[in-house]
């Protein structure tokens, strides 16, 4: 723990072969594919087999800017206990990097094993960290995972024993109390969430064989469509019904005929509140199949009711039927991209000395 701050801790359980997990976390060309914290990782030449493995890393932060740094890593394999440990120290000399220096570790323990003597949250004596390590033992451990023609090792496809894969790391920041406050309230929670999301993406890659690039693409489509759907519900509830009901919605309600005119304004407002409520509720329920199917039915019913009340609306631009079809298409996209999405909440965020379940 540095300067009294709480270190970032993430733990997950992956059903895979130990060598496959080791390769995907120790080889830069595989590591950079699933870890959203890094845009690039590369090893530096080693001076000797006993020396720590040096590496460089970089992360694109937008607007053509990039945070880059260097580090050193070591590995330890306890074959009799089916446990491995990779530690590292890292840092950046760039004056605009929030992180000045840091340290952490990755710990691999097969289920049912106590692992090495360090408890979760305690790296080995060097106080080092969390990333790629290539000791002489690590290089030997990687030999069974030589890449094939595709340049990647064979996927485990969920085969193998359950492995508890955990990381803990901490770092010192720049910019005085301003940097410390920014880190505490925004950067550190976000960095921890990104770490957990990346761990779950690695789990899906190893267990189900879905490459991280496809998972990221699927997540962008899913969350983008879910956000657009929610905004359309909220917008249709607020603008034409609650804020400006006299611009068409009230007249449409009155044209239905079987609704008394004195009730129409109240019903328009209630309908607007219901639509806005559906939009707000759809955000946390974007993975629920029943909720998405119910939205499709409501949209179809509302479009049919509007068309029956005023058939001439179908000939106007941005008519209710066109809007409903577009929103139903968004529901369909959200529905069929909700499965196999990485979720940070699947990971454990606090150390458990007994190594309990996820």
Automatic annotation (TrEMBL):
User: Does the keyword Membrane belong to this entry?
Assistant: yes
Q: Which UniProt keywords apply?
A: Membrane, Transmembrane, Transmembrane helix
The Basic and acidic residues compositionally biased stretches are 136-146
The reply on keyword Cytoplasm is no
Region described as Disordered: spans on this chain: 111-159
Write out the biased-composition intervals (Low complexity). 118-132
Q: Where along the sequence do coiled-coil regions lie? A: none
Q: Which InterPro entries match?
A: DoxX-like
Where would you find the membrane-spanning parts of this chain? 220-243, 263-285, 292-315, 321-339
Kindly give the SUPFAM superfamilies that the UniProt entry links to this protein. Answer: Bet v1-like
Q: What is this protein called?
A: DoxX-like family protein
Q: Which source organism?
A: Paenibacillus lycopersici
């Amino acid at each position: 723990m540095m300067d009294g701050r709480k270190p970032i801790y993430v733990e997950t359980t992956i059903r895979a072969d130990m060598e496959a997990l080791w390769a995907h976390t120790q080889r830069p060309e595989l590591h950079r594919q699933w870890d959203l914290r890094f845009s690039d990782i590369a090893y530096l030449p080693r001076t000797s087999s006993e020396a720590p493995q040096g590496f460089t890393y970089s992360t694109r932060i937008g607007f053509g800017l990039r945070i880059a740094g260097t580090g050193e890593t070591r590995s330890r394999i306890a074959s009799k206990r089916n446990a491995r440990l990779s530690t590292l120290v890292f840092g950046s000399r760039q004056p605009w990097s929030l992180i000045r220096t840091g340290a952490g570790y990755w710990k691999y323990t097969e289920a049912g094993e106590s692992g090495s003597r360090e408890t979760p949250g305690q790296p080995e004596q060097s106080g080092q960290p969390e990333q790629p390590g290539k000791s002489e033992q690590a290089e030997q451990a990687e030999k069974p995972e030589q890449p094939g023609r595709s340049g990647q090792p064979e996927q485990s496809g969920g085969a193998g024993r359950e492995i508890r894969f955990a990381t803990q790391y901490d770092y010192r920041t720049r910019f005085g109390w301003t940097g410390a406050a920014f880190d505490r309230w925004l950067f550190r929670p976000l960095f921890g969430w990104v770490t957990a999301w990346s761990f779950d993406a690695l789990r899906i890659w190893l267990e189900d064989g879905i490459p991280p690039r496809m998972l990221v693409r699927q997540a962008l489509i899913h969350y983008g469509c879910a956000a657009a759907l929610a905004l359309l519900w909220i917008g249709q509830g607020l603008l034409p019904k609650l804020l400006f009901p006299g611009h068409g919605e009230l007249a449409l309600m009155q044209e239905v005929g079987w609704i008394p005119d004195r009730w129409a304004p109240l019903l328009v407002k209630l309908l607007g509140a219901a639509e806005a409520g559906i939009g707000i509720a759809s955000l946390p329920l974007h993975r629920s199949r029943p909720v998405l199917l119910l939205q499709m039915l409501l949209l179809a019913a509302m479009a049919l009711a509007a068309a029956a009340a005023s058939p001439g609306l179908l000939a106007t631009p941005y008519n209710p039927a066109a809007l409903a079809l577009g929103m139903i298409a968004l529901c369909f996209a959200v529905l069929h991209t909700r499965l196999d999405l990485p979720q940070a909440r699947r990971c454990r965020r606090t150390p458990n000395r007994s190594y309990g379940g996820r």
